[in-house]
């Protein structure tokens, strides 16, 4: 059979079946790695090191290591291993590309933490280079995932959201506000769709957290892309954004630009202590202009927390300007130059620092009062600080020459002393001491009335006094109700003590046998009745006294010699009787002789009598 007539059987092409990968949750993967390796504490360098080590391990496992042509470790001979669709055989390759992006992003964020004010610094340029390389790797990863049939829809959506988020952050750092806003909006939209599509609670929380993370940057982009008039109208929103975003450098720069545009005066004059001066130092001029603009911004702030954030920023700049002014005065003094104007400027800056610090403490007091649960003790230290600052203001160099300032701050001191006394009484009432609280509430009422008199006498045009009399009226009402409550608690505690004293009688029965007493058994203290006191109390007892009878020293005993002679005759007569009688008489005679001897001893002239004479020889001998 000829070859052309042969029927060639064509076998159908057998296509390999594509095995899909498991769903890769990109956001969950990077958030877990960030939390476990440094970003929980803001350590970007540690996270970058972790990403580099993981990349090295994964490239070795997947045999996708980079090489050098001939000379090892030579930058010019480096040959990168490009990942293509042929290498995309499992999801580990996707992890490799993802952590390549994360490594570059972590390096950029680490450089950002050490940025300087100079926008042309090398560190800022390095940060932007690393962000752009991270975006380049993310673009390659998203294209590979989008064209791969093995990746499912959630993985593709997450890769797309990650790409536009990085693109938005690159534009955000480059201050390209319109492009950054569009990319961040697209990223937020994708994450919102993923939130609606998934039923996994963990992923839902992660997507919502990412949307909340994007929102402050998005609002800042919208704010910067508007016109200048709209910016000034939304200064309160700008301060709120500053509190939400951890990186406040761009917002601080924007605020400084707005303030510099709002202040067009070339010459700044100040008045303090009756003296006028022109501020020539640039740092001092910037601080004074900033405070003038801050007064307008404080009026637009919605809550005390926004005010506190603004005060903290401005007070730091004021302290820096004050230090610089002190150095300038020392240098001028060493050169024997005139420093009178500089002294006035320094006093004014010191006044700004102290007065604004007191306003910051008052904002903290207002914020504390807005809390649901707060203790009166928490306010005492703040009021003490305010009063001490007002006393320091009166001692500023040159302040004594301004009678308006002195009278205003004397009134303010009495004003806040009334508040401090009231909250001190409330603290004692909170601690369960009604007696002390009642006395302090009475004292607080006196201080409030005294402060009201001073406020009425104060000139309404005094710029140093901004407090209102209505606050004292409200405080007086609160003090009256609190004092009534403390008095009722004091009386109830006194009645309870007196009733307890009248019921409880702990005298023992032995001492009250002639009294009628009733013992209520329901009282817990009287379930056991005392019969007697143990041990019994000691009683005084009569006893033979021990003393030295010194009276016998001067007593002269009678002469018994005649009586002794008669007794001697009787003794001789008794010896002449019979033997039996003589024996008995001998006993009697013995007794008589002893009596005679004792009598002779007593009758001896010049000898001392009494107990003292006998005892004298025992202790210190005879003479």
TrEMBL record:
Gene3D superfamilies: Signal recognition particle, SRP68 subunit, RNA-binding domain (1.10.3450.40). Pfam families: SRP68 (PF16969). Transmembrane segments: none annotated. GO terms for biological process: SRP-dependent cotranslational protein targeting to membrane. Residues 593-606 have a biased composition (Low complexity). It is found in: Cytoplasm; Endoplasmic reticulum; Nucleus, Nucleolus. Residues 567-623 are annotated as: Disordered. One of its GO terms (molecular function) is endoplasmic reticulum signal peptide binding. GO terms for cellular component: cytosol; endoplasmic reticulum; nucleolus; signal recognition particle, endoplasmic reticulum targeting. Keywords: Cytoplasm, Endoplasmic reticulum, Nucleus, Ribonucleoprotein, RNA-binding, Signal recognition particle. Belongs to the SRP68 family. Component of the signal recognition particle (SRP) complex, a ribonucleoprotein complex that mediates the cotranslational targeting of secretory and membrane proteins to the endoplasmic reticulum (ER). The SRP complex interacts with the signal sequence in nascent secretory and membrane proteins and directs them to the membrane of the ER. This is Signal recognition particle subunit SRP68.
